Amino acid sequence: xxxxxxxxxxxxxxxxxxxxxxxxxxxxxxxxxxxxxxxxxxxxxxxxxxxxxxxxxxxxxxxxxxxxxxxxxxxxxxxxxxxxxxxxxxxxxxxxxxxxxxxxxxxxxxxxxxxxxxxxxxxxxxxxxxxxxxxxxxxxxxxxxxxxxxxxxxxxxxxxxxxxxxxxxxxxxxxxxxxxxxxxxxxxxxxxxxxxxxxxxxxxxxxxxxxxxxxxxxxxxxxxxxxxxxxxxxxxxxxxxxxxxxxxxxxxxxxxxxxxxxxxxxxxxxxxxxxxxxxxxxxxxxxxxxxxxxxxxxxxxxxxxxxxxxxxxxxxxxxxxxxxxxxxxxxxxxxxxxxxxxxxxxxxxxxxxxxxxxxxxxxxxxxxxxxx
Length: 372
Known about the structure:
The protein is α/β, with parallel strands linked by helices and about 375 residues long. The protein folds into 2 domains: about 1-105 and about 260-370, 3-Layer(aba) Sandwich (Isopropylmalate Dehydrogenase), CATH 3.40.718.10; about 120-255, Isopropylmalate Dehydrogenase (3-Layer(aba) Sandwich), CATH 3.40.718.10. It is built from 14 helices and 12 strands. It has a 10-stranded mixed β-sheet, with helices on both faces. Helix 1 runs parallel beside helix 13 (about 340-350), helix 9 (about 220-230) runs parallel beside helix 10 and helix 12 (about 310-325) crosses helix 13 (about 340-350).
């Protein structure tokens, strides 16, 4: 297979972890006889330094022309420490999602048996957790009209959704549920918010078209509690932009590190794959950043294009690194290995072998399809 892939390293540790994903992707190329074309482009704070824009026109055009985007991270301390900045690196990511129509964020949260001790939660609570969050990504309060009074004392953010915005991601989530354990949980705040009442009405109606899928609805406050008390009860979680952002953060607590969480952002024509963690500027250039989330995101990209054997080969290599404790400092308290070494180890263990691919499905994140 031939693919053109845009590489957007961004800020902080983004370029470092993305480099390890590309390293592993080149191993996939060599092992499975594929041909991938790579082209880099700036985004975020680094792009603002050179062009004055967090998303340069040339970067956006490259993304439109590419089959997929591998994204690093975005954000810089100088902007984190200046909340009054009119233009911020994060606006580049929001604009990229909007311009490319990346309306669905897909975030798998699954515990690995060999890393279960890394979570602050008890083993009997989180063992065998396997859920996927479908977060609406281009609507809601993050994109609504924002106002600030002249004296700066009153502010507002509009949370607005249409039936069309809700239905397109709802169908993706129900289709994913059909391929998994056939259970979907809608998370909203329908007892208070009119936008949530529209979500509940629309999703409930769509659910009638998927009679094999059991649907339940939870308010966001209850859902947050339930995720900490018994995350194993969930299969597919469907929710809006802001609530999905919050619940995804909780997912990193369940598995013990944001450095282990991948994600995909998909639309009708474009797809982007990025680690869940932020730019972590304090770790920049220290060779301590965890590349696994970025590598797992790359594996989701392979699955997106139907390259399931290749994706599983990457997953087996990642799992082996866990078993052998070849991990970065955020995992298991180890300080023996750095970003580059972990990337080298995983890429060096990506092989085309039925024996190596024959692992119990509980160890393979991508054993059940989450990408439509």
